[in-house]
Amino acid sequence: MSKDVIHVEGEDKVVREDTAKAYRGVNWALMSVGAFIVIALILLAIFFLGATKDGEVKTPAEAANTNAVR
After folding, report:
1. Mind listing the pLDDT tens digit for each residue in 27-43?
2. What are the boundaries of each domain within the chain?
């Protein structure tokens, strides 16, 4: 059986290779979900800050037509 080393709670542990891959996979999954949440919060904040500039929330179609000649 192939062995691999992972870092858990401040110390290195020797585990089987499949266990190490699963451990790293869970870490990557949690980081990906965290990054998705951070990006979504940033986009939400940008939307609300932009909406508060003029005091009204516009649909994308309305926002696209704001520069149109009336």
Report:
1. 999 999 999 999 999 99
2. 3-64
